[in-house]
Amino acid sequence: MKFMKLGSKPDAFQADGKYVRYVASELVTDVTINVGEVKFNLHKFPLLSKSNRLQKLVSKAGENSDEIDMVDFPGGPKAFEICAKFCYGMIVTLNAYNVVAARCAAEYLEMTEDVDRGNLIFKIEVFLNSSIFRSWKDSIIVLQTAKSLLPWSEDLKIVGRCIDSIASKTSVDPASITWSYTYNRKLSVPDKIVEEGITFREKIESVPKDWWVEDICELDMDLYKRVMITVKSKGRMDGKVIGEALKTYAVRWLPDSFDDSVSDARTWRYKYLVETLICLLPPDKGVGCSCSFLLKLLKFAILVGVNDSPREDLVKRISLKLHEASVKDLLVPARPPQNTLYDVELIQCIVNRHLMHEKYIQDEKNKANGDFILGHEHVTLMNLGKLIDGYLAEIAHDPNLTIASFIDLSWSIPDSARPIQDGLYKAIDIYLKEHLSLTKAEKKKICGLMDVKKLTMEASMHAAQNERLPLRVVVQVLFFEQVRAASGVQALNNNARDTSNSTTNTDEEWEKTAADDNKPLKKQMSRMKIKDEDFRKNGKLLKKNSKSTKSGVQLLPSRSRRIFDRLWVVGRGHVENRSSETSGSSQSPTSVAPGDTKSFGSSSRQRRHSIS
């Protein structure tokens, strides 16, 4: 911290009780100056030689009165004592904590150069310009102390000069920063400073761009707002850094949770804080602040009753980067007259806006790149699908959540956002579990949201055993699992035939090859034949394993097991019929006799009739 010493004489001020101060001297005091509740018994000559105002007051009081009242003295008794000591030539130490009060007091007393050369105002101004405003932390301290001295500190442009000094330093190249600053947040890996074996230059270059955001968090909201407006007006600060600064300030002053029982004064303060943070957000709505931070602001905005305009601005910003949010971020508490736990309508609105924006962006890109979805947009869409499915699973526990709200939110997500629908199945299962009073029609309607063909094996096995699902859905799950298994067997057979054909082609080429190339080609043939044998063995093994899966189905409930038994016969006949038609040769490991195929086919038709 910078400081300046004035004067050379020892301090002779003494106290007589709590409210009386005097100068220990052989000369009798001849004037009493009242500053607040404190009386100062002093001498006229040293005071009048420095203060033009005291000259006027003493002259106005006349010879009959030796007592002067200082009304509304800026800085109070302590500031006046600094000025009085300077008049006596006693040692006075100025620093960032008392310099503003001393400057305001000197202005009140009119301690200018017209009265005496090298007066207190001049010396304080030199100290401010040469030391205080050049120091990062001293400028912040002075700005904090200036608030209690308004309007004096504002009229003397101390506040404005401090703000300009702070804002200018925030935009300095981090590589040029040599002063100390506070940084308690966790550094990202690229920003970590390794103390051991690092040069001074490397250490300076490792200063993060947001090095300044924590130090200004102690400022009052009004002063913080002015600093941030000045920082933004300079146009040299990245939007992400602005967002980090606002997030740090919100973490410092907003509580983790909000209780409706807090006082009206505190509620008003939170409301003003949230509205101020919203108005300070970077102008580019697509960058700067994380979606998680914006949703936290939105939650508080709703709780403290922020006006519609700031809330609308927040919703717009959130809708642009909704895919970055987490399920926890979306859990915005509902307010009366809503009877649900969370504000589902708000999230529905944000989702719709997000999809409209993504559609507009995609249409614009299609005009330039052709009609296809770029990889980034596809990933964004899948992230949104996972997010909303997770949110549906969370709100499905709410007994007051209507089936219409659940279905509307689910339908708002396009099919391309859900290549796998395990998350949606989980949400539906939770909703069925928590809402046991649903009718069969309602169960059918909500289960119609998912496509059983997009369930993984694990989810399909769970669904096949799920007694809460309608029978029709279980049948679909079991049927498509059989189709999936059949496709796997057919794919393996095709691979085996492709390998056999490639071996034949190799034989023909080998017969036409020169004798010098026989050895390497024979080795290649051996490898190909081994592959062919492996495919044949694997085909038989897979067929055997497919038959054995029937015994594993005994773990299913009786209803699902009976359906599975019937579907197994249907699926098996279908697969082997397709295999016999396509192979046309006894070399295929899955080929069957024509009579067998016919019997499986007739059995299949009978089984289908019995199921339907």
TrEMBL record:
Basic and acidic residues composition bias: residue spans: 511-520
Matching Pfam families: BTB, NPH3
Matching CDD domains: BTB_POZ_NPY3-like (cd18312)
Segments of skewed composition (Polar residues): 494-505
Keywords: Ubl conjugation pathway
InterPro entries attached to this UniProt entry: BTB/POZ_dom, NPH3/RPT2-like, NPH3_dom
Residue ranges annotated for the NPH3 domain, each copy included: 210-484
Pathway: Protein modification; protein ubiquitination
Disordered: region residues: 494-556, 574-612
Domain BTB span(s) in chain numbering: 29-96
Stored PROSITE patterns: BTB, NPH3
Segments of skewed composition (Basic residues): 538-547
Biased composition range(s): Low complexity: 580-591
Family, similarity comment: Belongs to the NPH3 family.
Protein name in UniProt: Phototropic-responsive NPH3 family protein
